[in-house]
Structures
1.
Amino acid sequence: MSTHSGPEQLAQVRLVLVQPAGPRNLGAVARIMKNMGLRQWVLVDPQCDPLDAEALTAAVHGADLLHQAQKVHTLPEALQGCVQVFGTTGRSQTYPPEWQIQSPRQAFPALLAAGPAALVFGPEDRGLSNEELALCHHQIQIPTDATYPSLNLAQAVAICCYELYTLACESPSPAPPVPSPQRLASFELLQGFFAHLEALLLQIGYLRPHTARRKMLKFRALFQRAGLTVAEVALLRGILRQLQWSQGSSCQEPLEANRDPVPPTRPGSSGIPS
């Protein structure tokens, strides 16, 4: 049986830059990606032209990646199809206690093992917001000296790419693909579940509009740590629909495209299709 070499695992990794503003940083990122064998990247609402002369000069032999960069308007668009999302942060602040901030070296084994995965970096001037980090399954921070912890965007990307490449080369025989019924739920499938859950919890009064955001952060962290599969998300959404029916709800659940085919059961029925 043939196996992929370590660096080929990196083909599953997508770098996502949110609102990058410096063309030289983009060029430097393209160069380090080429150095470390990464090829996928997405620019979310870029504030500069990736084909700017400064970017092309800084990229050197990585200029082809500047031409290949995908551009989208929002972070959720950039994460479509990913089953694990890793968000980076360099801010010194108190984070939600349910987040488990890890270093790249601690987090990246899970990233390489996940399948399609995204590694997200925020804008140069502010980094990722807590709302953006909440979309991520894992939050990571590069350890730095407290006297000057701030890293330039290109530096942060370089450190992470190096750690990924080193780890991939040390693990030349990845585990076989997870069987289809057990495959992890994609980002968009989880988004549909979270929207459905929030709508129901608001409907039954468990959530209040002024506290919904904070409590949903907790639910997101809980379910994202669980590593839900496609089948498990379908099971949970079936429960949500049954609860909506029992409440006499006539409202449509959010994101209809992500519904699973199991209808709600009625009291007294077996719930087993005939």
2.
Amino acid sequence: MKVFPAVDILGGNCVQLVQGKKDSATRYGDPLTFAKSWISKGAEALHIVNLDGAFGSSEVNAEKIKSVIEETGVEIQLGGGIRSLDDARSWLDTGVDRIIISTFAVNNPDCLTTLSDEYGHDRIMAGVDARQGQIVVNGWERPAGDYLKWAELFITKGAGSLLYTNVNVEGLCKGVEAEPVRLLTNRVTVPIIVAGGITKPSDVTTLRECGAAGIVLGSGLYSGKISLEEALRASS
């Protein structure tokens, strides 16, 4: 199981949010410094989120993100504010391994088909952000239907993998909820990366046993509740 330390960028800083709320941001410093730190501790992949893009300003962190891509050389998946085919293509052309499309995929599922035809389905990941069984979009504010049905549609349309974020527990550092993950992995056959609530090594083990192909470490990692080394051991 792959472990993706998160490098979430807001206003040029590496940050962590609670429940996706902009005003909850804890700032940690330079994104490239943190990216290199996680790699030095054993990370072979990174999960980058352009939070300014998610909040409507997609170009704000472009140079910061490009520097991480160019100077680390590890596997990178990137999301945040990809709301058009031009946005998606521009990030894919910078060299990220895959992009994560969430709200845009709900509003226009055929975008997944277009992009997977152009770049290959392995580079197109659909974001399944769910609260109480409902996929949520537009900054996790609007429910849009059953997350399992959306996951199936995304795959039919061309997504080669899914990022499942459990909004119920995201950023709270209180542990994971296994059942929604288990339902999803039993429903689909593409790789599923899981985010939200991972706070201790047993959370990692639980998700591995549920069939997750990878995990994203965010608040639990940055707060020191779980170390990258602990997560890597539990993932194997």
3.
Amino acid sequence: MTQQGIQESQAQAAYKLAAPEVALPAGGAARLLSRRVGNVAVGLIFPAALLLAWSYASQRELIPPQILPAPGLVVQTLTELASSGDLHSNIAISLGRVFGGFAIGGAAGLLLGVSMGLSRRVEDYVHPLFKALAQVPVLAWLPLFMMVLGIGESLKLVLIAQASLIPVALNTLQGIKSVPRSYIEVARVFRFSNVQLLRKVVLPAAVPSIAVGIRYGLTQAWLSLVTVELLASSEGVGFLIVWGRQLFQLDVVLAAILVVGILGLALDKGLEKIEARLLRWRRAAL
């Protein structure tokens, strides 16, 4: 083994000692599974009660159907939209927009967060202005970007990228700044290069915060997508809500809102799985 390899092994061993893994006690996995099932069951109580109240109000005509359509009508409308192909095409358009904008904004946010975290000078110059701009909501940027970019696809991509960039950058910065100084000192003692320091020490230690930023960034990207499709689009799941309002068909509006919620939840759960994999990679890297 080369001298450099010995140094890296020693530094990683010291890093492992500083962050030991916590093993579940005997029977802990079964208790954890039981607790999760119980949490899911509790979480379904309120939606089930709301659905029952909605059905009861519709059957008794306590609320006019023009104001609140029956659940069965909403499901029927959703089925008709799916069978006609309108639902699938609009979902595909929305997902393409959100993934494209998130890829741009997430990559830029990760690069910016790492730059601010590793360089005090970059942080001093960029961070104050960046935090000020982060307080501006997406709707406030919309008129400016519409004047510059029009209402085409570039407008959607820029707004989605801007919405996802901010949480990714801030959480990446926070994750890097929270890396214990002792980890870095050990790496410096063994003469790690900047690339080795970043790859073997900083990024593995900052993974939890970065993963939270990515997950929150995708959530913001999805919300921004729906917002911009409500205001400046002729396609997408957000446009379906506007289309239903224009037709005075609240069943279409509610069906589109249901799709927005389901897709947002699916994206969040998908990233939750990716986050779990990243954390396993972090433990392996330590």
